[in-house]
Amino acid sequence: MSTEVKTTCPYCGVGCGVIASVDGAGKVSVRGDPDHPANFGRLCSKGSALAETLDLDGRALYPEIKGHRTSWNTALEMVAQTFQQTATEHGPDSVAFYVSGQLLTEDYYVANKLMKGFIGSANIDTNSRLCMASSVAGHRRAFGADTVPGIYEDLELADLVVLVGSNMGWCHPVLYQRLAAAKAVRPGLKVVVIDPRRTATSDIADLHLSVRPDGDVALFNGLLAHLVQHNAIDQSYIAAHTHGFAEAFAEADMSMADLIEATGLPAMQIRQFFHLFLTTEKTVTCYSQGVNQSSVGSDKVNAIINCHLATGRIGRPGMGPFSLTGQPNAMGGREVGGLANMLAAHMAIENPDHREKVQRFWQSPVISDKAGLKAVDMFEAVADGRIKALWIMSTNPVVSMPDADRVKAAIEACPFVVVSDILKDTDTARLADVLLPATGWGEKSGTVTNSERRISRQRPFVTAPGEARPDWWQLAEVGRRMGFDKAFDYTSPGEIFAEHAALSAFENDDERDFDIGAYAAIDEDDYDSLRPFQWPQQLGKPSGETRFFADGHFYHADRRARFIATPANPPARTSLDFPLILNTGRVRDHWHTMTRTGKSARLSAHIAEPFAEIHPTDAAQYRIADADLVEFSAENGARVIVRALLTERQSRGSVFVPMHWTGENSSLGRIDALVPSITDPVSGQPALKHVPVAMKRYAAKAYGFAVSVAKPANLDAAYWVIAKADGGWRTELGFEQDNIDWEAWARHAFAIPADVEVTGYADARSCDTRLAFFAGQHFLGALFVAASPVAVSRNWLVGQLREQQAETAKRYALIAGRPSADRPDPGAIVCSCFSVGVNQITGAVRQGCSTVEAVGTTLSAGTNCGSCRSEIRRIIDACHILAAE
Fold it and tell me: In what side-by-side order are the strands of the sheet with 389-393?
């Protein structure tokens, strides 16, 4: 018998509704929830592949101490006693929690309550610090609260949408498709993309501004000055509802020459953008990591908000500043005070009245009276010994934190480290003194809040494996063992949600923006059936009835918003030794450190190894060819090796490298090892998109590519990257020697027994080696080695791992590394949803498919999540150019 459960996607901040179906045999399938107001049934490639990530490979299934299995009671007693003893002997600030936007709101609430109200320290911070902290700081400075005024409907109601530092097409694909659909039916809707790179999102743009890294403050300061000079500000709104305009304008007033220098943009493009903003009342400005992940991120946010306040374009349909959240529950974490400088329910830790209220509500013995250490500072304190006990939950800081090698060394040296995670062998989990197995998506029960303040349920539809337990349960058990039985006597996440809702309304009286007190008395049945709702909302009424700031009511004590003066001084970090600017970020089909998406062969088919986007002119200067290996180094001595991808969509002087690859799946792909611990002074958010680096071609003596049924291990190579494939694994290789016994190397790396047959050849002089291994008729794997990057049909070879038989003709093709004429090669995967390759799309174009829609009709490519549509469009254009020549 089949069952269906409505839940929420665990990836980005769009917060898409998902329907999970489990058939009688326990097989899970997923589809979009057509009734969920965030996505109306659409899912991106990652969401569509969720069912492929639910296997138990690598799962943490029982508690461990020092790598040895133990009981929950023993593990929890050790955690409680060690944290309590450490706090007693060295003070509460000697312990810390580092948590995650992957936690559910109920998990977050209990963690924050335990640390701030019972241990008595504010040393709880989150990987959301790396994501949206500058937005929080900007909102609090401007509005008096961390209020996101925008909702998704605004994108469809606007006449101008400005996307700043947001590759929405890849990072928020479903929201991007909503915008694209609106633009298709309303040709007058204009889109401006402000980004140093020409990303997939730029393909929808009427204007793309390739702004200099961190030139955004100057650009929006210039816009503010332009609005003033052309009498386009709303003086009555400014007078009635704001303070600080004169100071902000004084800082913003700059000459066109200075503006060109600061932004790197031509005057014509600057004037075109200013004219669009000036003449279009219904304007939404969306911003994401390109704004936030900066040493001047908070000023970027406020420079944007200043322009909306000056024109009164806020709190009304189709207009306003709109922060697009990176993680599925970064917003929920902010609601419960999961950041080190906040209290629960959007209350301020620096406000004595707020501290007293929270302590009285919790009936806690203490309340932290000052901000705790933010993420970068927290790991610095771990490194220098101030923090002696650390609990890391649902995140992988050894990969994702800046100066990642130093973070790894700090965790290794910390006297006591607890890790709660679903996997046991992440770069971080393997450093744990105590490993606690957590429940994952599909097993968890709780709520998340998306970018438009919409709270949705995540519901379990499969049984938690082994002894895995929810994070809230682990935290509550530790709280009880520390002597706080009554405060942590929870039996369900519904009880925690009700308490969280009650605190949001506690002595609020419209003093604070966050108030879901209507749900304070919710019972288990209503919690189980809770439908998505958007705050502010009254229980039982449709969401979206109230827009924040529609009446000019803000949350500073005087109810006025604040203009913030934002100095426009883009930092200059490059030097003769480190002349290039590194920008890090996401790719379309992977998520964070790939602990989930790395399990899906389909998602790895599009991009299977870390790469560097390099402008061809820069590449020529360094004698780097397309597909070469490239080594990057930074001032901290770290080095990374990735594949070169030459493209004119990248700005000269800058490179882009994705942040997903770890020590588990690559030899030297942890890009955040190069990133220094430079942070925004207000938000504490690290500057992950403006890193000075040096670049050179990595001259390997030999290059390799392999496919294997067995997961590779003991890879004795300077460069290696492994990725899941359908039926096995694919591996990219680079060697510092070429005089290797390749057959022996392959048998060792891919666990191929000595008695298994090998077919192929090896030419020692040319380094050209092609070996295929067979157990009878069964294909076990192949290794290809060459003196230059290996040229074989990779996706065709990967596809052969699924084949059970390898007849003689097939063996010749396997050794050749390409299919015979009657078995066309699909080429590199473009559409992950339907596994459609570039060669298939090119063939369809040659047969007359001249539009993206026509290709979709023929091949289905681009008809699901749509995030590959821009890539399909570029292939069509390239084919037409070649045909014309």
Answer: 68-69, 64-65, 434-437, 416-421, 389-393, 95-99, 124-126
